[in-house]
Specification:
Largest sheet: 5 strands, mixed
Strand order of the largest sheet: 5-4-3-6-7
Distance between the termini: 33 Å
Number of domains: 3
Low-confidence stretches: 1-36
Order of helices and strands: HHHHHHHHHHHHEEEHEHEHEEH
Structural class: alpha/beta
Amino acid sequence: MNIYNHYLNKKKMFLGILFMLSTIQVGAQDFRDEVEDSLKAFSERNAAAADWIKTYNSSYDYAVFFPFDDEKDPLAGKDRVKVLEEKYKHLSGQLKKIKDARIRQYLGHLNEDARINFLTRILPKNDARRKEMISGIDVNSWLGLYNYLPQRVIKASMDASLDSLYGHDMTEYGLAKMQAISARVTNAKVRHALLDDCAYDVLLYGKDYADIDRFWKPYCEMVGSDSSLIHKYAYMVEAIKNTKRGMMAPEFFFTDREGKVHSSKEFLGKVVYIDCWATWCGPCCREIPYLEKRVAEYQGNGKVRFVSISMDSNRQAWLKKLDKDNPAWEQFILDKVQDEALSKAFGINGIPRFILLNADGTIADSDAFRPSDKDFHQQLDAVLNK
C-alpha cells in the first residue's frame, strides 16, 4: 500500500524477470507469486548465482546509501561514491564464479545498471559525470527498469520546475511526463511501466485538483488498449472527484479490538484526525512517536479527536503492537471488506495516509498533513478555529 511497498513490489517483478530470463508481462496480479516461485527454483539450480544475488541486494541497499532524515547514516563521514565503486568492483569480480554465460551476462548488466542508478542519485545534478551517464542510458531497455533507468531519462528531460507541483495540482507534471514518454519510448513494456509510474505519481502525490479530468482523459487516450492501467487507477480518480474539501465525507466502517463495528458517523460533532496505518509499514511506524506527541499536546481540547485505523490483514500483529505501545488515543482496525471500501472511497493507494474531517462531517483534507510536519499545529488549529 505505501510507496515503499510500491517500489519493493516492482523490484520483485523486475528481478524475477532477470531470474527467469524470460519475457513475462508485467501487470498480472498473480505475477509476484510466479516470480517468487521462479526465484526459489532458480536459486536451487544455481548456487553461485544465488550467492551473487544475495551480495547484490546487500550491496545496493537504498537504506544504507539514502537513509531517512531521522535515521542514523551508516555512511556518515565516508565517500559514498568510493563505497559504491568498491561494491560494484567486488560484484564484477564475483561474476566469474557463475559458469552459465547467459545468466552471467544478465547479472553483469544488472550490476552495471545498479551502479548508474546509485551514482546518478549520489552525484549533484549539475555534475558532468551524472549528465553523461543519463545521456547514455537506453530509455527502451526493459532490464533497465529494474534500476529505474528509463525513469531517470524521462525525469531528466522534463522541466525541473515541475517538481514544485508535488503535493499540489500535478496536472501539468503528468501531461509533461506523458509527452516525454510519447516522444522517447517505443518499447511496449517500458512504455507500460512508465505510464504506470506517471499515473501513480500524479494520483498519489498530487492533491487539490481543479479538474482531474485534464490529466485523466488524455492519459486514457494515450494508454489506449492497455486497459489494465485504466482499471488500476480509475478508483483513485473517482475518489479525487468525490473527496474534495467541503464535500460530505463518505460513511465508512471499522472495528475495535473487541470486535465491535463502528461508523464514521460517530465522529460527528468534533474535528477528527484519522491515521491510516499498518504494523508492517515502516513510514507509518515512524510517525507514531510524533502522533503520540500531538495527542498529548491537544489533550483536554474538546474540539478534536485523534483516531488510528489499522489496515493490517494480520489482526494479531495489530493487537501485539497495541499491547506493546499502549497508545493513549482510539485504535481501530479494518477487515477486508472495510479496507476495500475505505480505500476506494478515499483513493488510498499508499500509507501512512491521514484524513481530516470537520465537525459537521465534511472533508477538511482527504490527504492531510502528517504528525511529523513542522506546521502541524498551524494547519490543525486553522480547522479547529473556523
